[in-house]
Specification:
Length: 118
């Protein structure tokens, strides 16, 4: 029997992914890695992520990960646009790729580890 990932852990891992995305992005643009700046960059994506998790109830499945990913990217970009922050196509593409790779990647890795243990 597959042991599911606890919903609180799922939300925490996903939030860590978004914060990592914001921290790496700020660092690559020489904007500094202070926690306040990172959270200022991350909050729109964290809000979208929260909406996604409300929809999937913290599930760690790949299907749920796709919903969370979509909500994080679309919600994050909409909130950035509404608050006057940038949504250049290059940023949208990088955010979509990075968040997709990590939000789905850890779920896939978890699935493979569970399958291998059997």
């Amino acid at each position: 029997m597959r042991r599911p990932v606890h919903p609180a852990l799922t939300v925490a891992i996903d939030a860590a992914v978004v914060i990592l995305f914001a921290a790496l992005g700020r660092r690559s643009h020489d904007e500094g890695g202070a926690l306040g700046g990172v959270l200022d960059t991350a909050w729109p994506f964290l809000a979208g992520l929260a909406l996604g998790h409300l929809l999937v109830r913290g599930s760690a499945s790949l299907r749920a990960g796709s919903v969370v990913w979509g909500c994080a990217v679309v919600g994050g970009m909409l909130l950035r646009r509404l608050t006057g922050d940038g949504t250049a196509w290059s940023f949208v593409l990088v955010a979509t790729g990075f968040l997709g790779a990590l939000l789905l990647g850890w779920r896939l890795a978890s699935r493979l580890l569970v399958a291998r243990r059997r």
